Amino acid sequence: MTLVGTHAFGLKDSFGRNHDPEIVLTLNPLATTNLAKGERTVATIVFEIDESAQPAELTYSPGFRLRSYLSGRGCVSSFR
Predict the structure, then answer these.
(1) Pairing mode, strands 9-13 and 23-26
(2) 46 - beta bridge partners?
């Protein structure tokens, strides 16, 4: 199972502050925030950050509810 709820995503801004999503929307309605093997969806994730900040790093960590367990797992995208 893969987690696609708010706990799976994080955003770091240009000031180094971490943000959790305000909302996660999926293209197809899901009964839960978990995807079974082979199941797919498209997600829109909304973050609220300070007007003077820029997005710096987006993190997607499927299947792990606590970020302290990540230590190198998941997907991190940097903005340029």
Answers:
(1) unpaired
(2) 23
- CA nearest 9: which of 50, 49, 64, 53? 64
Distance, in Å, from the CA atom of 5 to the CA atom of 45, rounded to the nearest integer, reads 9
Decide if 1 contacts 63 (C-beta within 8 A). yes
> Which of 38, 11, 39 is closest to 24 using CA atoms?
11
- What's the average model confidence in pLDDT over 48-66? 80
The Cα diameter of the chain in Å comes to 40
CA dihedral 47, 49, 52, 53 (to 10 degrees): -80
**Structure-block tokens of residue 9:** 């995503």
Better pLDDT: 50 or 80: 50
Mean of pLDDT values over 19-24? 91
Residue 12 pLDDT class (50, 70, 90 cuts): very high
